[in-house]
Amino acid sequence: MKTLREIPCKDTVRVTGITGEGAVKRRIMDMGITKGVEIFVRKKAPLGDPLEVTVRGYELTIRKADAAMILVE
């Protein structure tokens, strides 16, 4: 399985699961990132942190540690 952190810019992927636990998982889900939602990776910072993505029409910034917990296909 791939994680959101591994996806190149300008790609759209579908979330298959979230591996985080507790407060971290809740924070990711509060951003609207749940199983089955599509995420478009708009831009990555030069060192990969943060990632700028579009989820459900909203533009979000995700830390690379959180992106590593989001499983995608």
Q: Overview of this structure, please?
A:
By secondary structure, the chain is α+β, with helices and mostly antiparallel strands. It contains two helices and six strands; from the N terminus they run ββαβββαβ. It has a six-stranded antiparallel β-sheet with strand order 1-6-2-3-4-5. The longest helix is centred in the middle third of the chain and has 9 residues, at 22-30.
What's the topology here?
Elements: E1 2-3, E2 12-18, H1 22-30, E3 38-44, E4 51-55, E5 58-62, H2 64-67, E6 70-72
Antiparallel strand pairs: 1-6, 2-3, 2-6, 3-4, 4-5
Q: What is the count of β-strands?
A: 6
Uncertain spans, ≥5 residues at pLDDT below 50? none
| Largest sheet descriptor | 6 strands, antiparallel
**What oligomeric state is this?**
single chain
The backbone outline, from C-alpha atoms, is globular
* Radius of gyration based on Cα positions: 11 Å
- Average of pLDDT: 93
Structural category: alpha+beta
| Helix count from the secondary structure assignment | 2
Cα-to-Cα separation, first versus last residue: 7 Å
- Provide the helix percentage: 10-25%
Q: What is the H/E order?
A: EEHEEEHE
